[in-house]
Amino acid sequence: MRSADVRAELGKFVLPTRGGWAKPLVLYQNYWLNPERLEHIIPVKKHFKPRRDDIILATYPKCGTTWLKALSFAITTRSGHAPAAGGHPLLTGRDPQKPKDAFVSWWHFVNNMHKGSSPIKFDDALSMFCEGFSPFGPFWEHCLEYWRQRLARPEQILFLKYEEIVSEPVEAVKMLAGFFAVPFTEEEEMRVVPEEVVRLCSFQMLSGLEHNQTGDVARGDSIVVGKSMFFRKGKVGDWENQMSKEMGKKLDDVIVRQAQGVWSCILIHLFG
């Protein structure tokens, strides 16, 4: 789809626009998006045809995306690239997280990705996030939509929590392998292959690689992301070092309010 066609398509809409973040966002189908991203989303919606064997990793930004990509790649390619072998592709080249940790990670990320923009104050960013006004927001709507689909199609959607992957990484890797229809064999488990996958894809391993510490990734004319920004701390509960208890309660209250009745038990499962 050509750029001119995309702009013509966008011209059919009168989209609400709001400032406050580094760049104004537009509201498209109940989600706040960077206009530059929207120009790519529309062609994908029109022309993307998924295959039955496609694997789609869906995470909110800064919620373990890079880690999940590495784990998935290592699991599905282990027949050709043994995790314990030298020269693994992950070493030579190229889930929902709790709302409070997700917000803190996202705030750090946004303040470093826009060239020439003034930093966004933490309090202002939190207020907008709690309103549901944030890039790709509202955060909770993503989680609830995928949770609904997971209940409807459990064989097609695997719902993972970042905190569970951190606390029990080997079990999470086995769960992923089973979901991808490439479960670990008894022989592989005896050779501790799941543990090797965890070691290969650990935060310390990936963040320490030279090609993940230097260089930039361009995302449009005004967005440049340093590769090191994809790895901050990778810790659960770091929000307590950035956010007061009152701020944390404010965000918790928003999540519970958005759940409304039947969704309360689901949110407790997701975020509790």
TrEMBL record:
This is Sulfotransferase. It comes from Dichanthelium oligosanthes. The keyword Thylakoid does not apply. InterPro entries: P-loop_NTPase, Sulfotransferase_dom. It is an enzyme of class 2 (transferase). Its EC number is 2.8.2.-. Residues 53-81, 99-259 form the Sulfotransferase domain. The lineage of its organism: Eukaryota, Viridiplantae, Streptophyta, Embryophyta, Tracheophyta. Belongs to the sulfotransferase 1 family. One of its GO terms (molecular function) is sulfotransferase activity. The keyword Transferase applies. It comes from the Eukaryota. Transmembrane segments: none annotated. It holds the Pfam family Sulfotransfer_1. PANTHER family: SULFOTRANSFERASE SULT (PTHR11783). Gene3D superfamilies: P-loop containing nucleotide triphosphate hydrolases (3.40.50.300). Keywords: Transferase.
